[in-house]
Structure formats: structure tokens, C-alpha cells
Specification:
The chain is of the alpha/beta class. The chain is built from 7 helices and 7 strands; from the N terminus they run ααββαβαβαβαββα. The chain has a 7-stranded mixed sheet, sandwiched between helices.
Amino acid sequence: MNYYKLIETEPEILEKIKEAEKNGEYSIHLDPIDYSHCLPVTENFPYIPSKTLSLVYWWRRFYFLNMFTWSIAKVCFRTKIRGKKNLKKLKNAVITCNHINKYDGLIIHHAMGRRKLKIMTADFNNRKGFLGKMMRASGILPFTMNRECIKKFNDAVSHYLEKNISILFFPEGSEWWCYEKPRPLMDGAFHYAVVNNKPILPCFITFTKNGKVFSNGIQQRHFTVHILDPIFPDKKLSKSENIKNMKEKNFAAWCSCYKAWYGKEPWPNNQVPTKN
């Protein structure tokens, strides 16, 4: 399998994006999901791997994944990073990013430098075969609605945040290939920031068309990762108020970044239109 092909998309996916946007369905998955290519996520998933498995993961990162990540970030997307100074303000955080490519988790890994990072994913990202081995080595934390799995997921998030390891969430809920605008945000990332008393570190990826096209005629993009000002919980607010407040500030920061980069408002008054 050519894993570099996963950076691309197909014309029909771009058409699905237009249709979903028109219908106000901003969190639906547009790529087909085939669970036959996935391993089931059960209570036995190694959310906190043993020392032996941690060594296996290290070996996979050292001998393959680190170089692959560099090549995706620097060669394929020519990724630039802005706002590194904001990393110096934090030991760790709940990181948020717009979900715009299958490899955007690796892009954020690259942007974070040597900082350790885990990535919240959907359960169908627990893939079989070599790809799945590399994804688990990269630090995925797949979420599923199984009650025991939710408990282990929650415990793992708290464990890593206590160890000064950041957790990456994609609060838009689904990947839309190179979609420029911020989409509505789900509560999950902000819930975990509040209950663990950790800041949100918003990141936003913008695009520059490089004048080249893929074999299917779709224009290629270069990426810029914007690491924005952190957002801290307010001790004066309740849990639900904090979640709402941090989510609104995150969305506003993304909108401001979009406006500064593209020179226009993403949505009137920073309000995403919803389905009637």
C-alpha cells in the first residue's frame, strides 16, 4: 500500500463537502467507513501500554514513524509553523485542531516538536495490519461508546495529562479534506480540559495552493500550523459554564486566525449557519 496516497482525496468527497455544508451537517463523516479493516476497540485496548509495549512503540517510531512524519510534514505539505512561543507558556494542554486531512495528527506531532502527544480518534482508526501498528505507536486513543472503554479512555486522558503529556482532539468531529473554515465544535475536548484543570491550546491549519495538482486534478496544498494563545479554565465558573466559555473562545480564535490568513470573515458574526 502506498501510504502517501492517503494525503489525497477524490472529487466526489469535495462534492460531499459542498452538499453537507449546504445542509448544515458539519460533523458527518464523508469518507466511507469500513469496519472490516479495523480491530474492535475493547476494554483490552492498551490505552496505557505496558513497559514492553511502550518499548515496541518506541522502536516503531524510531525506525519508521518519525521519518515518515517528517516527510509528510516537510516534503508533502511543506508545513510552516507559527506561534511556537505559545508552547513555552505550557507544560502540557488539551490541544484542539481543525480536522482537514488523514495525517493532520502527524502534522500536529511535527508542530509540537519534542513534546509528547496522544491523539483522540474514532474507533475505526484502530486499523489492522502495518497501518494500525503505526497509528497505535503514534499514540492514538480510540473512543467508543462501550462503558468500560469510556472509563479506560477517561483514566488514560487524566493519566497522560498528569504526566505532562498533551492530548490532541479534533472537536469538529470528522475529517473534511482541506476545508478552510472553522466548523462547529463538540464539547469533548473542553470537558476533558475542565475536569483535569488544564488549558486548551488551539491550533488551526491554513492552506496555500502550490500550483500543482494530484493525478485526479485536485489542487495540492501547503500547510501552515498556527499555534494560538492558550485558553485557561476560569475558577469562578461552573463546569458547564467553563466548557461553554472555552469552546466559544476556541471557535473565536479559529475564526480570527482564518480572517487574518484569508482576509475575510469565515461566517457572519462568527456564527456558523445551522440546518433549518
